[in-house]
Amino acid sequence: MARDKEKLVLLLDVGPSMHNVLPEVEKVCSMLVEKKLIYSKDDEVGVVLFGTEETNNELMVEVGGYENIVVLQDIKVVDGDIIDTLQKLPRGTEGGDFLDAIVVGMDMLIKKYKNIYKGSKRLFLITDAIHPIKESLEGNKEDQVRTIAVQMTAQGMKLESIVVRGRLSQDANKRIMDENDCLLSIFSKKTRTRIVYVDSPISLRGALKTRRITPLPVFRGHLEVSPKMKIKVWVYNKTQEEKLPTLRKYSEKAPSTDKFATNQVKVDYEYKSVDGSSEVVPPEQRIKGYCYGPQVIPISAAEWDAVKFKPEKGVKLLGFTDASNIMRHYYMKDVYLFIAEPGNTRAILTVSAIARAMKEMNKVAILRCVWRQGQQNVVVGVLTPNISQSDKIPDSFYFNVLPFAEDVREYQFPSFNSFPASCQPNEQQQKAADEFVQMLNLAPSGKEEALLPEFTPNPILEVFKYAFTLCLHLRFYCHLEFKSKQPDAAVPPLDETLKRITEPDLGLFSENKSIIDAMCKHFELKENPKKSARWLLREKPSGSNEEDGNADVSDAQAVNSIEKAPVVKIEKVGDLTPVQDFEVIMSRRDSPDWVVKAIREMRDKIVNLVIDSHKEDNYPKAVECMAALRKGCILEQVSPSPSLCFYA
Predict the structure, then answer these.
(1) b/e sequence 396-431, b meaning 16+ C-beta within 10 Å
(2) Contacts 24+ apart (CB under 8 A), 19-25
(3) How far apart are the first and last CA of the chain?
(4) Directed axis angle between helix 141-154 and helix 174-190, to 10°?
């Protein structure tokens, strides 16, 4: 759809004060275009440089002025040429006027699209904003900014600004910096403008939002407080899991002369009868089958539809409870945002009143939610008030999904106090451990917090996309230049900025070498010897009635007895103690064949016990063997056989 496409103009400051930052700017801008090739290959991008020695833009020719601004790339669909352009930005010699650059970028968007395009139009500004803005011929600078902001709003444009300060910029006149910050703040008040201040390569990369995700409501309807009280609300995803790009299959078999070839591999499936005929079974004659033991049970779509759970769409209040009753670790999945229906004054006031009352009384609400008609599952979660700090933004709620009883996993860990004194840490060990943990604190007192979440990109995704940018075939990313131009070239080392996110901080380790040495001194690391019967230590023997720790002791003694008696080796599941024989054979690790042998012999033993049983006298023993075989197959992640199935 046309509305899903974005028209983006990059406004990049290349003046002398930005020279030490430009290598990182080149990387992040190239990454932006590369990600558009992944997610939004129909988007269009243009590049404008300011602070250059030359001047090359249409406004300079038409009306004069707008000096030291160069249109490096006209707006066009993203491709590899734009990446090449962004990786070799020229260095300017003049101070950059970001206001003139914004006007030039707006002029490019207006002339190219005028009123024919209704999608997203965005200006992306990267500057240090330390150079003075030229005086306006009419009015002052603030009036000029307001005029530009009105035109920007009328054209449906959005401005995003990254202002580089701190360690990445040189010393500058504070008065000029404050004046420029004030001018940028006017944009944020009058238009849809996002301003971010960064001071490191990591924060610069994290501040660049390369993906444009349009928020869509997952629910529009009534929040039913009672049968007589309903509030119109909209629900949005507040957070959402970022997933890796979908990989597709490509082939080089298409003729090189075919300009319209996509090189995508399409897979078609044909269904034929098992009787060996070559006739293809049409869709209307096919029905889904589900394995149930050795049998395949056919279930038609009508039968599935008849037994489906079909709850009614809606959001209902189940009740209120103290916030202390809902533990933070109960939260599941993503976070949702409940807001009152936009423009509905009564709904806004009602939501605000309930949210503030809940906040004052330290209460949360429990809701039952069915987001859409036909949804087969019901969501139960907790509604937490979100009181706005701005008069322009109404109060709202956060919603977190809660687990059902079968979803709760209670992991009980024994206390150190339950161990003997010889196994407990002494004072020196405790002190060394405490200092080691404090050394890894990302926000130590008196220092700036490292790796701020809002300015740190996802390391898994960044490394993934970096690797694919360098290694995958040209067709996958369309124009990712590295491998497309040098197919046999070696993969270059990881980018230094990504290394700071994904690898240990060597500077931190060198500064705290004494703490690390103390940790190693007080905690001696020993290799854990491989026990031949560790399987017995992990699980109690089948049929055991031990419920306390004595079972572990007896198991360990059994293991020791087996290890101390190497002469007597059990190599076959016998008739007297088949379960114990099976477990001993399963625990052997001198050859992988023992597991297969133990399963086969135990399977045959179960069948023989059932067949040779007289008046069901062997059934209890067969059931015990069946339980041991089932446990062994689960632990070893193997199947007993295609014909032997377990029934609950």
Answers:
(1) bbbbbbbeeeeeeeeeeeeeeeeeeeeeeeeeeeee
(2) 19/91, 20/168, 20/170, 21/128, 21/164, 21/168, 21/169, 21/204, 22/89, 22/91, 24/168, 24/201, 24/204, 24/205, 24/497, 25/89, 25/126, 25/204
(3) 51
(4) 30
Q: Residue 335 is inside which H or E element, if any?
A: strand 332-340
309 close to 376: Cβ distance less than 8 angstroms: yes
Q: What is the number of alpha carbons within 13 Å of residue 234 lying toward its C-beta? A: 13
Residue burial 49-71, b: 16+ Cβ < 10 Å; e: rest = bbbbeeeebebbeeeeebebbbb
Using CA atoms, how far apart are residues 279 and 491, in angstroms rounded to an integer?
49
Average pLDDT for the chain: 80
In this structure, what token pair is assigned to residue 2? 């046309």
Tokens of 431: 């002190």
Other CB atoms within 10 Å distance of the CB of residue 36: 23
- Confidence category of residue 222, pLDDT binned at 50, 70, 90: very high
Dihedral class, residue 129 (left if φ above 0, else alpha if ψ from -120 to 50, else beta):
left
CB 514 within 8 A of CB 508: no
Work out the number of other CB atoms within 10 angstroms of the CB of residue 42. 12
> How confident is the model over 590-634, as pLDDT tens digits?
777 888 888 888 888 888 888 887 777 788 888 888 888 888 888
Going by C-beta distance under 8 Å and a sequence separation of 6 or more, which residues neighbour residue 290? 296, 297, 299
CA–CA dist 46, 453 (Å, integer)? 30
Residue 362, C-beta contacts closer than 8 angstroms, at least 6 positions apart: 322, 323, 324
pTM (two decimals): 0.62
Among 198-202, 481-485, 535-539, the least confident range:
535-539
Choice between 43 and 448, residue whose per-residue pLDDT is larger: 43
More confident residue, 83 or 359: 359
* Whole-number Å distance between alpha carbons of 80 and 72: 15
Strand 379-386 with 396-401, pairing: antiparallel
Assess whether pLDDT exceeds 50 at residue 543: no
Residues forming beta bridges with residue 6, ordered by sequence position: 120
Bridge partners, 56 (sequence order): 70
C-beta separation of 320 from 357 below 8 A: no
Question: Beta-carbon neighbour count of residue 433 at 10 Å?
Answer: 15
pLDDT for 557: 45
Looking at the DSSP assignment, which residues form a beta bridge with residue 230? 224
Strands 332-340 and 314-322: unpaired
Query: Cα dist. 382→222, 335, 337, 372, 403 in Å?
Result: 17, 10, 12, 19, 10
Give strand pairing partners of 297: 290
Q: What is the CA radius of gyration of the chain?
A: 34
Contact between residue 65 and residue 464 where contact means Cβ atoms under 8 Å apart: no
Q: At what angle do helices 593-611 and 619-636 cross, to 10 degrees?
A: 160
Under the banding of pLDDT at 50, 70 and 90, the label for residue 553 is: very low
- Give the per-residue pLDDT at 394: 92
> Taking residues 239-250, what's their average pLDDT?
73
